[in-house]
Design brief:
By secondary structure, the protein is an all-alpha fold. The protein has seven helices and no strands.
Length: 125
């Protein structure tokens, strides 16, 4: 996956990053919430923040999903995730939105937020 980033940087494209998402991609495969992460975070991050091509984005997300699959088998299947990732990338291109941030993640998916940010106490309002 690092080769995808280096390729984008060497092409002269300005690369932005969000540290916690980079850590998720490089060091934190998940046993659950993979569809949510692909749709709301990774596809939007790769396309609209990192400015990777759809092909580069697909490759990086699928690399992460393969790591996830080693921890807990993807459901419904890796093949189905390939289709979903392509759709999510298309949607990210269409909407142009950034990935959800930590605070919105906390609202939308408290369980995932707790997994990604165990040091932050969940507060109830």
């Amino acid at each position: 996956m690092l080769s995808v980033y280096k390729k984008a940087e060497s092409s002269g494209r300005r690369i932005a990053n969000i540290h916690w998402i980079d850590i998720l991609l490089k060091e934190n495969p998940l046993a659950d919430f993979r569809k949510f992460v692909c749709h709301w975070i990774l596809s939007r991050y790769m396309i609209n923040v990192r400015r990777l091509t759809p092909e580069e984005s697909y490759s990086a997300i699928m690399d992460w999903l393969r790591k996830c699959n080693r921890i807990q088998q993807l459901s419904p299947s890796l093949h189905e995730f390939e289709r979903r990732v392509k759709y999510d990338i298309t949607e990210a291109l269409r909407c142009g939105k950034a990935p959800i941030g930590k605070q919105l993640l906390k609202v939308m998916n408290k369980e995932l937020h707790a997994i990604l940010f165990p040091e932050e106490k969940l507060t109830t309002h």
